[in-house]
Amino acid sequence: MGKRFEGSRRIDGPRGAIVEAARIALRELGTTPYLVDPLNGRIGAFTGLSLASYGEKVEILVLDGEVRVSSECQMAMTVVDWGRNKKNVTALLDHIERILPHVTMNYGLVPPIPMPASTVAPPPVVVARPTPPPPPPPVPGSVPPPVAPRAVPGGDPMSLLHARYLRGELTLDEFERLQAEILPKEL
């Protein structure tokens, strides 16, 4: 065994879909892509450090109808890779073939496969809550109940009275009468 392994497989499909399937396969296998070039059909990635190796550099080239994958140990002094590079190449090619039909379906390149009726979820059940009844209409000629003053945190009685007057809750006469009760007589 050497420190580099290359493999290829005939995989038919649009180049962009194959590149996307390869990108997904790399992510599923736990690698970190450093290059994704869908126009030229190139992807590069690094595998992580493990007990078996210091990691490998993986390169994928998508040609018309063919996918080439190479895996090379990152450590230049590696003499034996213990089958790690071959395992990377075959796993990637298998993943790409497995994922490609789903990618092309999502890209709209192939009509979707109808699902059996047993796997289709039933529509969600919407429970309508009863709405409260509207308030009864006011009786003609009746006076609405007085509105309690809205408390203002830290507000003094005079500013509360002024706010009620500005909201239209008090007439001018009522405002002046209540003002005379609140203010000291000496002013």
Residue stretches low in confidence (pLDDT < 50, at least 5 long) are none
Number of helices: 4
Q: What is the mean predicted local confidence, pLDDT?
A: 75
CATH architecture label of the largest domain? 2-Layer Sandwich
Integer count of domains: 2
Proportion in β-strands: 15-25%
* Largest β sheet strand count, sense and barrel closure: 5 strands, antiparallel
CATH domain class name of the largest domain? Alpha Beta
C-alpha termini separation: 106 Å
Share of residues in helices: 25-40%
* Spatial order of the strands forming the largest sheet: 1-5-4-3-2
H-E order: EHEEEEHHH
Globally, the shape reads: elongated
Spatial extent as radius of gyration: 38 Å
Q: Which superfamily, in CATH terms, is the homologous superfamily of the largest domain?
A: Kinase associated domain 1, KA1
Number of strands: 5
Determine the CATH topology of the largest domain: TATA-Binding Protein
- Helix-strand makeup class: alpha+beta
